């Protein structure tokens, strides 16, 4: 989930505690009826059962099999460094634990499954996903719980897969993770997702308030080999009945400093969003872009219009080229067919270079949130399927508003990424 605008913090203690309790209760729930009678495990020997419950055996299963009591666990760590800060703007520390996430998945009876994840995000604990899901033969996939609203190509792409350190500036305009019910299905080369959402947990310093209806429709064309061309449109309408806010970091996430920020927009009644997306993979190259607009209606005052766009290209110098995730209709992380090994000239992993030009405008009428345009250059080296080294250079080409003094400055960010 990217660097996006979030509403003011709200009380969440009871709801968050309840959500965490339900999530881990579901993770520990035995999957009765999940295997046929002929495959049922024999009665356990008490001595063997005692040995299996010892800490070394549990640790071995968690570290190597990543499974305990029928529940699969995954996670990742991002450690970011900032050797150079932009002139005129102090972005943050020299070193920071940017993200530390732990996720679980468990199969439930009657073809249901439960998924959940929590994350330490720049020092703030956040409950990310917590939902149940079932795939029906004709109806499609039904998902109930705290989940991402289906909008924003960059927003929906896993942070493990995006070729640059942070999502683009316009991602600040899309909704985040909220509690709701969503149905998705595929017909030929078309895929749709439609959901009704309420408020969710706080994400990246924001929390959406009110009720929303959000949908996404995509179409893909298949070319030679793994080449894909993808077009999509997403629409969202949320009744706010309170305050609204949009803000964005300068594509370097250390310390969560916001260079453009509308501040609290009082008297907001409804926020409407529209997004157009494009993605194409061809051989060792990938091209991706989005245009996103947000309109905020107010009880008193004119309607506010904010917008942004970006264009991004990636070239794989060696290793496996870009891949398309047909399930989520986003860019997927390339498999590492030849992990790097010291002393092995043929094991080099994947090395890719990316460039992105992005812009966002958060000023309209009496709201002066500023506008920003960035040029970002990046390199990622996937040493193995679990380990990545990355570096980005971000140039603030144009910046207006409260932080206009940082215009023309440059920032360099580096990351060590590990998934388990």
Q: What does it look like?
A:
The protein has 420 residues and is mainly β. The protein has a single domain (70-96, 148-419), classed as Porin, CATH 2.40.160. It has helices spanning 13-28, 46-52, 55-65, 153-156, and strands at 67-68, 71-84, 95-107, 112-121, 124-136, 140-148, 177-187, 190-197, 211-222, 228-244, 247-248, 260-261, 265-282, 285-298, 304-318, 323-325, 330-332, 350-364, 367-382, 387-399, 410-419. Strands 2-3-4-5-6-7-8-9-10-13-14-15-18-19-20-21 form a 16-stranded antiparallel β-barrel. The longest helix is centred in the first third of the chain and has 16 residues, at 13-28. The two termini are 19 Å apart.
List the helices and strands and how they pair.
Layout: H1 13-28, H2 46-52, H3 55-65, E1 67-68, E2 71-84, E3 95-107, E4 112-121, E5 124-136, E6 140-148, H4 153-156, E7 177-187, E8 190-197, E9 211-222, E10 228-244, E11 247-248, E12 260-261, E13 265-282, E14 285-298, E15 304-318, E16 323-325, E17 330-332, E18 350-364, E19 367-382, E20 387-399, E21 410-419
Antiparallel strand pairs: 1-2, 2-3, 2-21, 3-4, 4-5, 5-6, 6-7, 7-8, 8-9, 9-10, 10-13, 11-12, 13-14, 14-15, 15-18, 16-17, 18-19, 19-20, 20-21
